[in-house]
Amino acid sequence: MTFSLYHRLALTITGVFMLTASAFVFWTQNLSSISRSQAEQQLHLGLAEHLAQDNPLLKQGVYDYKALENLFHTLMVLGPAFEFYFVDPSGKLLTYSAKSGEVKRQSIDLRPLIQLINEPDKLPVYGEDPRSVEQNKIFSVSPVYNGDTLQGYLYVIIGSSIADSISAQIKSSEQLAQSTAWLIAMAVFLFAILLLLFRTMTRPLKRLSQFIQTVEQNDFDIQSVDKINWPSKHNEIHLVGQSVNSMLETINQQMSQLTAIDEQRRKLLAHLSHDLRTPLASLQGYLELIEKQPPKGINEQEYLAIALKNCNQLKSLIDQIFELAHLESGQSNVSFEVFNLGELIYDILAKFALKAQKADISLSVYPANCDFTVYSDIAKLERILSNLIENALRHTPAKGNICISICATDKSYSIAVQDTGVGISPKELPYIFEARYQASNTRGCKKSHAGLGLAITARLIELIKSEIKVNSRLGQGSEFVFQIRSADTSQ
């Protein structure tokens, strides 16, 4: 059987209470017994002395022990709560009121007797009970002299065995009834208080447990369940509930992001598969034609040129796929250094000069003398500018212009790549940096491209700790702007 937290707490506290109550009852009974013994001994403290002074058999010394035994027996009949003993100065019993078979000791320790005689105010004092080898009882004592000679002690036990037996029977019955009644009443009261207390304490835990089970059954979709609004109190369970709500919201957001990312990856794989299949199928077709006898009037060199073009397109796409995967894996290293920005820009423009000349597009830099020293990763900055210029060349018609402008600020330089191309629709601007997203201005474009250039550019911009912005108008061109740090801030 499995017990809930509420049941375990109730059983534990009840057990502790029972142990505490038992210890309390034992302590109170022991204290009551000591107090009662002190009172009785104080009440009968002079009993033995009065008997010794008033009785002729003891007043002038003891000579007739048989007569003294009869006297003790008569006194015990008159006072059954007392037992009478006469002991010599060494503690040996000479005569007593009890029957011979009932006496277990033939001598007693005299130290308690002498202590009570010398210090009658320090009560209670317990002396040895001749009827028991272990039990001690309160007593009254008086020395008996014959002239100046000590003959012994009159030793009176207060609380005879008969009185103890009757008292024990009465007390046991009364105490049993009282103890039982008190324990039952206290247990019922305790259970009622504990059940109410623990129910109040464990109710939030039960609600939290049921809420988590409901969320788990709904695949952690907190939108489909009623969220618990925990009060803002200094209560640990309420704080745990608030943390669980925050944790579930985070899990729900992450699951939504993972779902969206997974959907994007599936689409990306579908697009990439199509893009890989197209040049590969074309390449395979032309190679098969070359392998066989080509039709008359067809030059094999033309087939080889087309096959080489498809092969280069396939290689470019594969290279971009690997580059994008490497950047997204987080394993790309960044090496910042100080270099001349103008030299890098003119080197990049020289690389694209022939391609721009064939497309009848002009390339320019503003200001022409851009002798600026910057602090960045030169290889990644070169790749960023190359991607942006290549993208501008692809979407700029003949007689167009591409300009790289640099604007200096206090701690950085703003670099803008501007073109006079076809532009981008405002609705499509937020998506152009997504992998394999093709804007409407790319449809029908006869220039080969993989569609991953801007996605790679966005990842590289993040690596050099910058941010790229786009301004564009349809039919007027586009502008890509980002910042890099000045060399003065590298320290």
What are the defining features of this structure?
491 residues; alpha+beta; Beta-Lactamase; Helix Hairpins; Heat Shock Protein 90; 7-stranded mixed β-sheet; 5-stranded antiparallel β-sheet; 11 helices; 53% helix; 16% strand
Summarize, please.
It contains eleven helices and twelve strands.
Task: Tally the structural domains.
Answer: 3
**Would you list the SSEs in sequence order as H and E?**
HHHHEEHEEEHHHEHEEHEEHEE
Percent of residues in helices = 40-55%
CATH architecture of the largest domain: 2-Layer Sandwich
Strand content: 15-25%
Computed structural class: alpha+beta
Judging from the principal axes of the Cα atoms, what is the shape? rod-shaped
Mean pLDDT figure: 78
User: Which CATH C-level class of the largest domain is it?
Assistant: Alpha Beta
Helix segment tally: 11
- How many runs of DSSP E, i.e. beta strands? 12
* Poorly predicted ranges: 443-450
> For the record, what is the CATH homologous superfamily label of the largest domain?
Histidine kinase-like ATPase, C-terminal domain
- The CATH topology label of the largest domain is Heat Shock Protein 90
CA distance, first residue to last residue: 69 Å
The description of the largest β-sheet is:
7 strands, mixed
Specify Rg, calculated over alpha carbons. Answer: 55 Å
